Amino acid sequence: KKDVKILLKKIFKLQKKINVYLSFFEITTILAFLYFSKKKVDFAIIETGLGGRLDATNIITPILSIITSISLDHTNILGNTLELIAKEKAEIIKPKVPLVIGRKANLEPILKKAKVSKSKLYVSKAVKANTFYDEENSLIASKALAVLSLKYPLKKLAIKKALKIRPPARFEIFKTFGPKAIVFDLAHNIDGFKELKKAIKLFFPNKKIRVILGFSKHKDTLGCLQILKNFSNFIHVTEAQNFKSLSKLEIEKDLIKINFLKYRIEKNIKKTVIEAKKLAIKNKEILLICGSFFILDEIKKYLKINK
Which fold has domain 172-302? Predict the structure, then answer.
């Protein structure tokens, strides 16, 4: 915290001097770069915020570029086709810097950019149908580490341990809060909800699913709800305390459009969790929390989950 405060003061001072507006993401990106530099980290994993071409993180020249997948998200900014989005994301590819892609990123704009940039291309292994989506993520990570191992002395045991670490809120299951299981998943676009549907069927076949749901703005909520309604028993609609959150009433409009009537508009997240947990226990249901990072974050804080 001390380092963050010191570095933020420097950033704000510079911002005032050059008289340039910086977004929250731009400020945190600069903060991260300065902090990593100060701590002299061996490796830093930098994730783009949105797209690639105009992203704040894209000022660096990495030792490896990774594009995991391309899906229809942020279409109001990146474009409304996979090809247009791929073209934007392909701009993280730098001359002669190796590139690892997942099977869902194997698109012409990316392949073309890699060829022009003379970047050696590595494609992760394909997974079988109906495989848990996190296995595909692990294969991409494994391929990336294998490529890095060609140049850097990474120990096989260390790689093996690293690949066992699961990221939070990617079908993260907890069984100690009352219901048979509480599942946190960051699904927030159509592709994400398709994978979430497969994971639910894989891990909890024939189980009833109660959902706590909230979305951020500029998402295809209608498309996501079309998928969610197929495996949801009941939906508690809520809204995070964040300016990027989509209004509960907007979500309700889309629920009415798809004729899904088993829902309730909740007053706040705390009451939502209390009521949803109670009903999930009573009806022997799985409690799924999804749709927005902001919803997941607030609920985790309320449940005192620090993981």
Answer: Protein-Tyrosine Phosphatase; Chain A (3.90.190)
Residue 50 has pLDDT above 90, yes or no: no
Local structure of residue 99 (DSSP, 8 states): E
Confidence at residue 307, expressed as pLDDT on a 0 to 100 scale = 59
63-112 pLDDT per residue, tens: 999 999 998 888 888 898 999 999 999 999 999 999 999 998 999 999 99
CA 51 to chain CA mean position, Å: 13
Q: Is 141 exposed, middle or buried (0-12, 13-18, 19+ CB in 10 A)?
A: buried
Q: How far apart are CA 250 and CA 252, in angstroms?
A: 5
Mean residue pLDDT of the chain comes to 93
Q: Where do the H-state alpha helices sit in 93-132?
A: 108-116
CB 269 within 8 A of CB 300: no
**pTM confidence score:** 0.82
Angle at 43 between CA 110 and CA 167, to 5 degrees: 75
Distance CA 43, CA 63 (A): 10
Orientation of helix 269-282 relative to helix 293-302, angle to 10°:
80
Nearest to 48 by CA among 57, 40, 39: 57
CA pair distance 307, 304, nearest whole angstrom? 9
User: Is the separation of the CB atoms in 124 and 103 below 8 Å?
Assistant: yes
Four-way CATH pick for 42-162: 3.40.1190.10, 3.40.50.2000, 2.60.40.1470, 3.40.640.10: 3.40.1190.10
Q: Yes or no: say if 203 and 173 are a contact pair by the CB < 8 Å rule.
A: yes
